[in-house]
Design a protein that fits this description.
The complex is a heterodimer of chains A (about 450) and B (about 475). In chain A, about 65% of the residues lie in helices and about 5% in strands. Chain A is mainly α and about 450 residues long. Chain B has 17 helices and two strands. In chain B, strands 1-2 form a two-stranded antiparallel ribbon. In chain B, helix 1 packs antiparallel against helix 2, helix 3 crosses helix 6 and helix 7 crosses helix 17. Classes of the chains: A mainly alpha (about 450), B mainly alpha (about 475).
Amino acid sequence: MTDLSAAPGFTARPKSSILTASAEMKRRNAAEARFKAYGMIAVAIALATLAIMLFTILRDGVSAFHQARLTFPMELSAEVLDPKGNRNREEMSKVTTVGYQKVLSKALLAELDRQGIAQEGVSDKEIGELISKDAAGELRARVLADPALLGTTITANVLATGRIDGFLKGRVTLETAERDSNISPDQLRLAEKLRDAGLLRSSWNWDFFTNADASDQRPEAAGLGVALLGSAYMMLLVLVMCVPVGVAASIYLEEFAPKNRWTDAIEVNISNLAAVPSIVFGILGLAIFINFAGLPQSSSLVGALVISLMTLPTIIIATRASIRAVPPSIRDAALGVGASKMQTVFHHVLPLAMPGILTGTILGLASALGETAPLLLIGMVAFVDNYPSAPPEGFLDPATALPVQVYSWASRADPAFIERSNGAIIVLLVFLVIMNVGAILLRRRFERRW
Amino acid sequence: MSVLMILAAIAVLAIAAYFLARQRALASTNGNPRLLHSLPLYYGWYGTIAVLLPSLAALALWLIVQPMVIEARISQNLPASLIADASKRELTMADVRRVAGGLDTAVAMGTMSEDEARQVRTESTNVRDKLAAVGVALGSEVSKEVLSAAQDYRELASWGAAGRTALVIVLAVLGLFWGVTRAKADFRARNRVEQVVLGLLIAASSIAILTTVGILWSMISETFDFFSKYPIQDFFFSLTWSPNFRGGSDLGILPLIWGTLYITVVSMLVSVPIGLFAAIYLAEYASKPVRAWVKPLIEVIAGIPTVVFGIFALVTVGPALRDWFAAPLGLGDSGSSVMTAGIVIGILNIPFISSLSDDIINAVPQSLRDGSLGLGATRSETVKQVILPAALPGIVGAILMAASRAIGETMIVVMGAGAAAKLSLNPFEAMTTMTVKIVGQLTGDTDFAAPETLVAFALGMTLFVITLGLNIFALWIVRKYREQYE
């Protein structure tokens, strides 16, 4: 017998079936559905922002790979460009770019006359302004390099000014030209006629990869050449400095280090360095490498030193993980047949850990390639329009880097530079994708499971 | 001999030492390698190391010490007026070095003979024009003292170069003899070589410590310099930030800390819910194929350089927020704002929080889930009441690390937050952070004696202490409250 059933206050549970949901059950199921929906929304937001970001970059940047050029026949009159007539380079170089500019605009005017293209409200001077300010310098260099061109008629294929380029790409319209002091709607109408006549054409822009940076007034001539070279130098130096040191440090910490205060301190340091903000490394580079050691500002060597110190923890962490993944049986076997500890590590453990080390190194380099903030502090944001010379002296020449170029273009006033900036991002992302895919393929191909 | 030539000579000697030592070891057992203590190549390596180690160490030491000695000697002979204080002395020495370098170039290009360069006087020749002719432009006329100091400099430098060459080559040759004579059958070459290799490994792993020491040293010394020029209480407690390179600037850190924290809070409001829910969804709900696709895609965000996020803030997010929220609500008309920078940093941190939390949630043992589900709890109840409490310390750690990343983030705030230091509550107003000001004060022409420049080091120090503190705190939480499930 039991007292429980007779206990006061006991009420029988209402009868229910699991086939019909009670109110409680409905509430809980709804909560469940909501919770799951929150998760899906979060994933959707994350993926959507990624998609939007990539889309805006592509939308704004792809056009940087095309550039408007004017093509017209041009007579290089010897009387204007070589007044003394003796083809002496020294005397020819007295004719400045202004002289060449006149020749260019005259030739364009003549061609317009010949083809009968005219536009109300555009003066001869304004027609000349359709040609990029960069074209005269380029032509001058070409003529000075080869004076035999004088007197001949060549086909000029010169950059159009940035606004005209923007007009062909849809960035500049007749409405915006109304408010723009650099271009008039009539000039745009003329450009339209030029395009129809085949004089003005948009073509693949190799100069974007080879040209140096250009001043604020000439976005059409700005290119990534110096930045690509600077980034390549830096990556080369980072590879040379960072990988041996990182691998050596990992070997010591994984295989030889005794458990003591010193190795503990090293371990703590490495994990903390990985979390130090990148800008702090820039301060370190400025204070130690530039102010104290006296290395030249904006040089790729200083940039590489700073980035190496930043990348070192990443590479050490990856290398240690792959050394740890080599099973102890390999070491025991090597030691058992009489190899020394050092021989075991260098002849057996290291080769087996190599794929992992390579993958980690590539990923470390990929993140190093996109690093910007510390480079701003060591002066790599400066305007550099000369190519650094060949290594090893070139490592000390002023250079800039791909992500820094993105930043410095983005901070200029002319919207044409935003296009360049996005174009540079596309180039940067292509490199990053190649490196990451390479790392994944390496891992797939060589990864071993014991 | 130039340094490059010396290095080449050392390399030749090192290679020679390898073969000679190896040869000699083998010869000592009449060519029978089995009678040697070590493999023949270790004798060779011992020879190489015996050449390289002393000579390279001497070369490095000489390269560091020589300029110091020469400058000390030169500045003794300069009149006191030219080296009155540290900055003046630095300028004069730079002039001396430049003139000396110019004379070297002139000799190298053949416009001056060696004797001429040694004896040229300002009274008889216009040195500036002469040097300009070989492409060395000098800012001002060369004074008599500077020219003679430059000539002394060249003299000392050429003596130094000769001494350097002699010392290094002698050491290398001595090393070669040492290494080769020791190569005998019973010499434990392998042990010696391995000792050296171990020394190199230890040196490599100490670089991490050196880096930390370098960071601390570079910032501490300059920070003290700053506080000797600017009162410390004004830096930490003043409410205005208005640097002025003509002097009389207010350099209070509080507006910068306010901007930094405000942006960090906004970014955490974006990244924590999205990152956490994404992690929960991927760990508990998503099917295998969905997880295999979505997880790497979210991690792609982490691989994008921050400058790209900066452009995204500048070109897309900033104007969108301004046109859709700030302007209609009458809260401001600035594209760069706390909201812009905060949201974009939040996006940057989503993959960071989601992958860390994902790992932590996956580390909670399946038996806990099974137990909860078996008692009749729904999945969401299991997550909320069992898994999250178990994973909490790890998740809190991940959130703190994300906060430290947000505080130290630079490019996004430089491009998206603005440059005006303000204490305001309006999130659509442009505000600025410590990192922005570090970049601002240290780029362009900087004068390392002015407090306006040095303040950047104090800001960097503050930033370093805050982020390091947050990280250590995060690690401590994870370690202290970690559940052990075995």
